[in-house]
User: What shape does this take?
Amino acid sequence: MRPRRRLLLLLLPIAIAAVLWWLLAGFGDWQRRPAQRSGHVWAAPNAATPCLLFVTREERERRLRVSRNFFRSESYDRYVLHVHRIADGARLQSMLLADLTERQEPLEPQILGIVDGHVWLWRNGPTALTLPDLRPAFARAQLEQQAPDQAELLPREPKGYAIRSEPLSLVLRGRDARLYALDAVNGALTPFPPEQLPATTFSSLVEDRFLYLMPPGRSRVLTSPSDAMEQSFLTGTGRYYGLLTDGDRADIDKYLPKGRPHGEVARRLYGADYRLDGSTPQLDLATVAALGDERLLQSGFLVRRHGTLWDVPDPSSTLVLARQRLGADEPWRLVRLGRDGRALWSASTGLADLGELLDLGTHVLFVGYLDSLGRGAIREQDRRERLVWIDERSGAVQTLVVEDAAPSTQPAAAR
Assistant: This one.
């Protein structure tokens, strides 16, 4: 082989590698940190396909060409909307919402709420998409073309929008200090008096009711798992049920345990007959009896909404949150407990650290982490956030890791 040809063959791989390096160095785009959830998790249980939604923010970096021989690096956040089916966790849709180099609330995309099969988003203005296919239904530009005078009234920040539940609608505080409802189908902006908003105990000003609207379908934050628990309840048929410790049972003739349960203790289900003395329930102490053999650690009845417990019919039962063993890193379990004290099923959330709770209609969803923060070496902890939702009737579990949005299924432990 001639020396020149041999030299060309030796230099060819080097040249190819140099070209690839130049291309990658000049136009690289890579992940700096895995995607994390941005904002709440939302549920659309009444959509054509019942689904849950959330937005993720992924920190990325890219290299941009400044001139022929110079480049610069740019950090940015990528926001993506995810839609998953409740029944099996399957991904239905995802949509890139924005790539932003600045992290400011007026710029960051977020979910405003869900109304009649539409998800309202903030994307530098209100936007409505159909569920679950995310087809455009309304955008601010549409109102600017049809009615520019009305478009001028739209708030310029997401805090100017809210969801009222009666009737279910997107409402806004206009830039003229009046309240309006915005329709996703026809884009109509309709004024309404503030007296139509539900009353609140937080402010005496009628206009301030807007600030305290609680949108349906949004996950609620738990400062502690006990925030989502109740120790006892009364039925309309004159029966009392409570999760009591041995000490509670011994003192039940002196006081009636109620409120949030606390303490690393074991509780059992007790039942009794009661009658009302005015508004105060009085137990028939002769009927107080333990029901079943279940010992439930750190347990409490799960609160579904507004103080209402999570009851499941056929057979009549109530969901209970508990642990199988004591310990900060022990996962929480959900138990469907019958009125006779028998566990119809028991399913582990896999989560030791619970942060949020959401009613999915037929399922209960928990948001949290496998490991409790501050326990053990950080490098050994799994701090990937997970969404775990459990079928109220069967106990079937779906798990979604936010970082990769890939669901897995695990069966419930039959009892």
Remarks:
- DSSP finds four helices and 31 strands in the chain.
- Residues 266 and 349 are 19 Å apart (CA to CA).
- The chain has a mean pLDDT of 89.
